[in-house]
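Sequence in, structure out.
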Amino acid sequence: MATATVSEITSSPNSVIKPTPAQIVPVKIGWYGGQGSGKTTSAALFSLGLSKEVYGGAPVYVTDTEPGWQFLKPLFAMEKVELIQRTEPTFKAMIANLREAEKLGCCVWNGDSLTIIWQELMQSFKAKCNGYIPIDKWGDIKAMWQDYTTLFLNSKMCCNALGRLGNEMSEIEDEDKPGKTKLVKTGTKFKAGGGESFGYEPHLLLELSLERKAKVKAGSRLEGEGRIVHRVDVLKDRTWALNGKVIRWSDKPGYQPGGYRTVFESIKPHFDRVQATMAHVKIETGASSVGLISDNGNSEYYERRQRRDVLVAELEAAIQLLWGGQGQSEKRMRLLVAEHVFGVRTKDAWEKLPLEKVERGVRIMQEFENRTRREGMPTTELDVLANLDIVIKEHDEGQLAEQEMPF
């Protein structure tokens, strides 16, 4: 059977050929605005549109922190789309929810509100750190938050992140008070992620606000008495399909089947342009640093980093003890041993290895050192490397006795 072309996959909803889930490139959208601006309902309607028009009625998932999505369940029931709602407002739960949603075959994950999750993460650190967050903990917090960002962008599902409006402030000179400065509002931001707005992360960023149409009565315009309109300012579209546009959706007294189309069709140009890339590019990462916060306020990421630092120091000390000195033969021996055990030669390179590889190296060097105490140091380079080969083989086959680690 012939493969669908890009134009066929991204054509109108009436097209006969529909993309399969494997062909769909997921969209990642950030929605933010003040309270009551319509973030939740708009994201829900777009999610319904994706499920009905693209994914064949697949379930929609929400991490609902406030909560509010239960009031939208009748809309999903009317469209025969399952809405899976989870209401635990924690960072840990949100990470688990993202993974659960994929396992359940959901087509869209919604995080509402990301601002609440960010505040919960801050409060969790404060609770473990006597009511404030020391400056040395911010690296951990950013690393944990980056793990969420990576999951959000790498997910095979379409993802909506909803958050509250924050103000961008700048310090300028006060014209009325020479030599003094004042803070002024210079813009808005997606309020989550600390000093760095989460709005940088999604592919499409939408700011929502409310307008009220003027009511015309007997030829006179009555400002502030007409119908509510949801205004959407497109602040960023990496595909350029909607860049700079202003979209307006009129508020409606009730929902009728197919009512999601107004919102879905407004954002569909972005979805279509994303499909034209024909590729879901993922962020490549190493070992996950997502973890809980220990009683001393350290994250799993921090604990692993500390553990690696201790092991690298132990490893360097072991090699220096066995082949210390600044002579050419000692330097050469240190390089040969490091390369033999790790495949790298320098301390800088050891520090970049995964924790498990560093720990493996420490265990090998501990056993080698113990054997030299009992049997004496091999006399030639070849003998040293041959004896290392024996220890490495025994370690990798699980034959060595368990050694106590220095932490």
